[in-house]
Amino acid sequence: MHRNAQTTRKSDIENCCLADRHRLDVSAPPAGTTNVACAGTVTAGHVHAFQRSPTNHDDDDFISADRTDVPLKPYAQNEELKIEWVSTMTKDGFTSPNCWYRALKEDYHLDTEKGLDGKLDKPYLFIASDGDAVCRTDAIERAKGSGLVPDHEVHEVHSGHWAPFEQQDQISKIVLEWLKKKGFSGL
Length: 187
Fold this sequence. Notes:
By secondary structure, the protein is mainly alpha-helical. It has two domains: 5-109, no CATH class; 117-181, no CATH class. Helices cover 42% and strands 6% of the residues. It has helices at residues 5-9, 12-17, 36-44, 47-51, 79-92, 95-105, 110-114, 141-145, 163-166, 168-181; strands spanning 124-129, 152-157. The chain has a two-stranded parallel ribbon with strand order 1-2. Strand 1, helix 8 and strand 2 form a beta-alpha-beta unit. The chain starts with a helix and ends in a 6-residue tail after the last helix.
């Protein structure tokens, strides 16, 4: 099959992530393994990198151009971590990370969820990041406002998308204090 220059230029990652200028294409074939280092740069860079990422189409050519000119956060400058991430993603691609979106699109959990009352009757800890352009802090507001999480506690840390890497000590402290407060023994 002959592929035109435009098709050849676009990476498999883009084909999975970019359906059009408004949404993720979760029905595309599993993401491939091209331009993985660039994708890592987008996700581990400072917040402006996410704002130019595949889900925000100000610069659709960011990944296909294999750009890595985004300043990385300190944890992402660890060469061993970068090598491990690139190796894993080169081997496995973005198939697993995209499974949640595929399940959502295909209403995979719909039958199971029909039987649920919609209220979480367990203690719930929500840790958000003030610099995460993808998973925003206000994501919990709808569930809180509707009473779906009556026993909840919300904390916000100064971080980007990968808070456990960026704020390890602060995240650990929040989790341990919350577990103690909720009566979990052995801490």
